[in-house]
Design goal:
Blueprint lengths: L11 H4 L19 E4 L7 E7 L2 E6 L3 E5 L7 E2 L10 E4 L5 E5 L2 E5 L7 E2 L13 E6 L5 E5 L4 E4 L7 E3 L14 E6 L5 E5 L2 E5 L7 E5 L4 E6 L5 E5 L4 E4 L7 E2 L9 E6 L5 E5 L5 E4 L7 E4 L6 E6 L5 E5 L4 E4 L7 E3 L11 E2 L6 E4 L4 E5 L7 E4 L6 E5 L6 E5 L4 E4 L7 E3 L9 E3 L6 E5 L2 E5 L7 E2 L12 E4 L6 E4 L4 E4 L7 E2 L7 H6 L2 E6 L5 E5 L4 E4 L7 E2 L8 E6 L5 E8 L2 E9 L7 E6 L3 E8 L4 E5 L3 E5 L10 E6 L3 E2 L3 E10 L6 E7 L6 E7 L5 E8 L2 E11 L4 E4 L3 E5 L1 H16 L1
Parallel strand pairs: 58-65
Antiparallel strand pairs: 1-56, 2-3, 3-4, 4-5, 6-7, 7-8, 8-9, 10-11, 11-12, 12-13, 14-15, 15-16, 16-17, 18-19, 19-20, 20-21, 22-23, 23-24, 24-25, 26-27, 27-28, 28-29, 30-31, 31-32, 32-33, 34-35, 35-36, 36-37, 38-39, 39-40, 40-41, 42-43, 43-44, 44-45, 46-47, 47-48, 48-49, 50-51, 51-52, 52-53, ...
Amino acid sequence: MSIKTALGAALTAALLAFAAPVAGASVQVGSSGWQWGNPLPQGNTVRAMSFAGATGYAAGDFGTLLKTTDGGNNWSGLPVGTFQGLSVVQALDANTVVAGGGCVARRSTDGGASFSAIRFTPVESNCRVGLRDLSFISADVGYLLLADGSVFTTTDGGTQFAPRTAVPDSSAAGGSAAPGGIVFLDARTGYATSGSKIFQTLDGGVSWRGVANAGPPLNRLWFADAQHGFAVGAAGVFLRSDDGGATWSARAVAANSQNLTSISCNTSKICILTTSAGTELIRTGEYGDAGGTVVTPSTDPIFAAGFGSPQRVVAAGQNGATVVSDDTGVRFTPVGGRIGGTFRALRAGGERNTAYAPGADGALAKTADGGRTWSTGNVPTTADLLDVSFPTATDGYALDVDGGLFHTDNGGAAWEGLNTGSTRRPVTVLAPDASTVLVVGLRGLRRSEDSGQTFDQVRAKAVRGAQLTGVATAHADGTLFVWGPTTVARSDDGGATWIAVPKPGRTARERRSLTTAQVAFATTTVGLLRDTAGRIWRTTNAGRRWTLLTSVGTEDVVGMATSSVRKATLTIGGFGGQSGGYLLRSVDAGATWQPQFVVNEPIQPGGLAAGDGIDYLLAGRSGLLFSATGGVVGSSSQLTVTTRRRSLAKPGRITVTGRLQPAGGRAQVVVSAVGPGSTSWSHQTVAVASNGTFATAWNVRRGTTTFIAQWTGDFKSAGAGSRPMTVTVSSRARRAHHRRARRRGRR
């Protein structure tokens, strides 16, 4: 893959200060419309790999299943329909692949365009025993080995299963040995490992007999062809069979300290072995007769390897690190790569397709192609960067945690230190244009009109002496907003003058008691406010009136961004009681919110930024993603909730029902409720019936309880959220109930 070294003649000088962006096409996250920008090709750890010619599949954490058709140069993400980690994969041919791990397994016969479930357990979200290995001899006929040694077979691609005899010595057979792998050469002849032993079946798993004992435990079985089989395991054990598995003999290819986890060989009898530590690969010739050579293919651990051609070795591992070799594994080169450093936030740039990530030790990452590639440079400080603001691609400002402020007018090739004229440390910086810059502190803000050469304290009453924690620009019209716990203000003239924006609340006392955590405005008048209780408020008239958005369904909101008056995205710390990198997306002015499960790691509070047509996301401390669709992928779906009576005379237990359209097989919906006077939501996760209906039971007390339903989608349909439904328990309802009862009595 080529490495991009220029983003246009106008930025040539600026790029000299930044490491060149890495190559490799972006891979879409299988569960959403987000794509990886760093690392490339993607950021989830790969655990297993299998090739059929130049077409290969790689399986890994967070339901990752990748496909390449050119021997590992380029990869695409496949929507397998699960977030569970995949630990095994088998490519029967270019279009037929099976993969699994934990409580799930999947099969595709159209090259990954669609997948069907291999249903070895009735409930994928929780199973008694997980999958250890699988072996298919055709698209329909296969065998599964579970972690307790149980064996199951299917003849219809995984719709129905028949049990077979458990592998001897395993817990399912009354022993204690851990199963390692399973391989079938045809419908009747197969091999499985249990502890240190290899067992053979000649009747499709009805009976087993021992054929080898390696001593140390075995991890995996693999056959290069019908005659040559291999078993690898702990303490460097390497067994080979040259007679189709009838007999096995040891070869010395690895040190005793190495725990071998997989093997793949080419037609020239050269084999590549992986280790559990991932720090090295073992290369051996003549199917192990030539001894072993240690190869270090990457600075990142490598856990999976395979041959994409007789000469091409492809390997991948930690955080998606991918390398290839065109000399059978002697030398490796990276595919894609990653920029170094850790980052704390994301900021969209003033120019289209630009974004910036301030990081540790003065590191600064930037993209100029809408997040597809990233490069790194350094601001001249050893302190961590707190914030950055780039109104143009060349003019930018950076603020470190020690209060140091820096300015560049050449895209980061050189930086100048600035003096804000105050000993108080600013907490954030914003430059509405190249010459105007604002530094916001815990006691008001300071402003410069000469690119930071001089600063003046802003004297406007709305912000003078106020404790301020954030500043942002309205996406559509450039209006500036600042906020702090007790203050929200806006400026229409680049920060020279400021007007107070009223906070939510029906009375002055309520407004004073509400503490602001963040605001995000799309225009001068339309915006969102997040309070420290996690509630989201919306205004369409510059704060004169606010509406509480109970449609959000959670108090665990840690960040937000708006891209238009109707579109907004929230960062949440979890969903339905599950932690992870979740977002809520609204395209209807906050009436409903669609959950998105993007990454396994939590998203940082400042890790979401809305650009001009592109949204950016920081996953964990180093993962960088982008989306041109707001993260939405798949056809639309709808959720509704209802109950028999929404006005009750007394507290009690009610049933809340709902419907998902289209009905998703085995879909799960989260129904959430918040009680009267509370800001804390409760959640119930419920399975959806085949007709799309679901039901939950709740206790309601006096006052109004709000209910909503949400789901993350099923990789075919996008997620959805319902509109809120309220149930009120009141004395008025009790009186109405008594009147109805009296009328019935008179009849």
